[in-house]
Amino acid sequence: MQPLETAEAEINERRLLRGSQSYEELRDSFRWPRPARVNLAHDVCDSWAKAAPSRTAIVDLRGETPHAVSYGALRHLSCQVEAWLRSQGVRRGDRVGVLLSQGPLCAAAHIAAWRMGAVSVPLFKLFRHDALQSRLTDSGAQVAVTDAEGAAMLAPFDLALLTENALPAPGDWPAADTGPDDPAVIIYTSGTTGSPKGALHGHRLLAGHLPGVEMSHDRLGVDGDVLWTPADWAWIGGLFDVAMPGLYLGVPVVAARMARFDVDECLRIIRQGAVKNVFFPPTALRMLKAEGARVDGLRSVASGGEPLGAEMLAWGREALGVGINEFYGQTECNMVASACGALFAPRPGCIGKPAPGFRIGVIDDAGLETTGEGDVAIARGAGSMMLEYWNNPQETERKFRGDWLVTGDRGRWEDGYLRFVGRDDDVITSAGYRIGPAEIEDCLLTHPGVATVGVVGKPDALRTEIVKAYVVLKPGAQVAADALQDWVRKRLAGYSYPREISFLDALPMTVTGKVIRKDLRALAAREHSAVKPTAETTENT
């Protein structure tokens, strides 16, 4: 067993932003680690299981009493999953679905896939049939690791399933000989056209997250740090902003996924798990603020998804006892910029500064950097940048402009800080989720009474935006708004159904027959600012 002081030295060695340098010194001296061979399972689990098997990896708060899961136990569990995967004929490069919320088995399933060189595909428990089908079909996953609830959800699909009640005896295999760019995980992201796209990432993904994660938690890895987020581990924010960085750095990760965010439950989790470091999505912060909550004992709070205003940052310092560090990224290239109170003062309305190792540009249509407002873009070669969109070379090509990955957001520089101006695409940001309108439109169009539809985000004080659908019915059709809401809710996901539906005689269209979403967004904005909406509307909260 590794002595405590040796383990702490190992943590410090693993931190990419160690030492006492200023931000400028860290930025200028930073170099990406470029090992010839790297395997995520070894990095986040096996190396610790060998050096410090009894060290706490996960604090499981899902039961009546807290349960500490050691790295040795986590490896044992992952080897059980791997034994089953091998019995199903899973080989290197095969895709493995993971339909689990926060918990040891969720982490173990990903680790098992990575150890054998397979590719994990996180799936969200709020997905419904069509959302699951599109991701399973596109990824080609033939097996999945889940629980009893997930098994019922996956029953309509031709998959081999492993649940926690059917774990076999573990094997003992070394980690596959994988390199930084060998595929490790496909994380599906919302898009403005067509089905959600699968961002394929390699085994270097975790290292690419570390600079931004460490910044956002004021140099994560201090003795006593304990990480938690209410965000699900099915998303890149939960899986690679919290769970895997924590496991890699030897920082205990609390597993306590809530079915819905609840302020009292959140406070209980922080207290019972002795949480010191939290990633709060903006909606969670707004709910805490609305209920007058106060949290003691935190060392760092990070937030990302949409910008926070000066009022929210001031409230955070008072109610949470620490400054809130905002960070920025997306599924295709995450944690590229962050605030860091330990290194520099925050600037309200700005995302922060580039994380060491990332070159962020504000570019024009020709791909040239500009001093004014432009498209926020990330230079090729960044550690957390995707390899490609899975089986989608056309969309991969469209994502780049020369040597820049274009985020779809607009911004400008202010004294070294990146100010977020707005999105240049149609993705809807609601309660921390990024929702693509195309998938919802396609779903509504399958209803026999719907002729055409346009989906946009409508401003909302709590959720940032809500999903708003403008529907044209077929002649003679009589369909209630709540029926269309249920139609989407049962097929896609509980968070992406239209919370408001307005029925119109016609939609604004281009000459080629495409819905002009910017006109619908303008209409939604006018409705938001009006005392009484002018269209027939229903809203479910």
Provide a descriptive summary of the structure in words.
This protein has 541 residues and is of the alpha/beta class. The protein is globular, with a radius of gyration of 23 Å. Among the domains are: 37-203, ANL, N-terminal domain (Rossmann fold, 3-Layer(aba) Sandwich), CATH 3.40.50.12780; 428-539, GMP Synthetase, Chain A, domain 3 (2-Layer Sandwich), CATH 3.30.300. The model is unreliable at 531-541 (pLDDT under 50). It contains 16 helices and 27 strands. It comes from Salipiger aestuarii. Residues 439-514 form the AMP-binding enzyme C-terminal domain. Belongs to the ATP-dependent AMP-binding enzyme family. This is Acetyl-CoA synthetase.
Instruction: Output the CATH class name of the domain at 37-203.
Output: Alpha Beta
Q: Uncertain regions: pLDDT < 50 for 5+ in a row?
A: 531-541
**Averaged pLDDT:** 91
From the alpha carbons, calculate the radius of gyration and give it in angstroms.
23 Å
Q: Would you count the extended β strands for me?
A: 27
What is the CATH architecture assignment of the domain at 37-203? 3-Layer(aba) Sandwich
The total count of helices amounts to: 16
* Percent in strands: 25-35%
CATH fold-level assignment of the domain at 37-203: Rossmann fold
The span between the termini is 52 Å
Instruction: Tell me roughly what share of residues is in helical segments.
Output: 25-40%
The biggest sheet, with number of strands, parallel, antiparallel or mixed sense and barrel status, is:
11 strands, mixed
Structural class: alpha/beta
CATH superfamily assignment of the domain at 37-203?
ANL, N-terminal domain
